[in-house]
Design a protein that fits this description.
By secondary structure, this protein is mainly beta. 0% of the residues lie in helices and 37% in strands. The chain is built from no helices and 19 strands. It has a four-stranded antiparallel beta sheet, with no helix packed on it. Strand 4 and strand 5 form a beta hairpin. It starts with a strand and ends in a 6-residue tail after the last strand. Residues 171-181, 185-205 and 209-236 have low confidence and may be disordered.
Length: 236
């Protein structure tokens, strides 16, 4: 799990047994800018090959680790030197990350109001975003379903947007709006839910949570000052 304000990643067994941690000085809680160090480790995703991707928010970069927690590489402005940027492959507060079944890496580039996509090694592929359909204001989360559909928590627009793998906006039942507080993040899969998240459970429901409320009953819940529910269609 990403232990953001302690600037580290912690690893647990399926039943919550502590297995290890990493970050600056072995994950003691201090922020850092070196390889394998973090300044607010916010989002984490694990590929099918066991590669671990972490959004290092205030260092404005993505870091990648192998299954044994060893640093592999990083990317962002100037190769991930810790400065913010607006160019392709650069970030300004990368918030959450997701990995598709084919190894594509999607990053919610919060303050650049966009989603960026990379290959498994961090090579830039494409981007999209900007307040209408298919555009964002402060996207905080991203997730990819087993069928390749992309879900984005469009925070300041108070909605979830759904896309095909081609970044084509999905018409119909794709947008769910909460009229008070925006959704903060998204995650799809049958694994653990930690902190702010959204998950797709075994009954094909998409669940959206804020920092205090997460539900997993097969329907969409956007929690905030009010609650809007809906059914997600077309997922695995």
């Amino acid at each position: 799990m990403a232990d953001g304000s302690n600037h580290r990643i912690q690893r647990f067994s399926a039943v919550g047994t502590f297995l290890g941690k990493w970050g600056r000085n072995g994950g003691t809680g201090a922020a850092g800018t070196g390889d394998g160090e973090f300044n607010i480790a916010r989002g984490i995703a694990v590929s099918g090959a066991g590669q671990v991707y972490v959004t290092d928010v205030s260092n404005h970069r993505i870091q990648r680790f192998d299954a044994g927690e060893a640093f592999v590489n990083k990317w962002g402005r100037n190769g991930g030197d810790g400065t913010a940027g607006t160019g392709d492959g650069e970030f300004f507060d990368p918030f959450y990350v997701a990995v598709s079944g084919t190894g594509k890496v999607y990053v919610a580039d919060l303050s650049n109001n966009r989603i960026q996509r990379f290959d498994a090694a961090g090579v830039y592929d494409t981007k999209w975003g900007g307040s209408g359909n298919g555009e964002f204001i402060a996207p905080t989360g991203v997730a990819v379903s087993g069928t390749g559909e992309i879900y984005v928590a469009d925070f300041t627009n108070h909605r979830i947007q759904r896309f095909f793998d081609s970044e084509e906006w999905v018409l119909g039942t794709n947008t769910f709006v909460d009229d008070a507080v925006g959704p903060t993040s998204v995650a799809i899969g049958s694994g653990q839910i930690l902190g702010t998240s959204l998950t797709l459970d075994s009954s094909k429901g998409l669940v959206v949570g804020d920092t205090t409320s997460i539900r997993a009953d097969g329907t969409l819940h956007i929690d905030g000052g009010s609650l809007t529910t809906g059914t997600i269609e077309g997922d695995n």
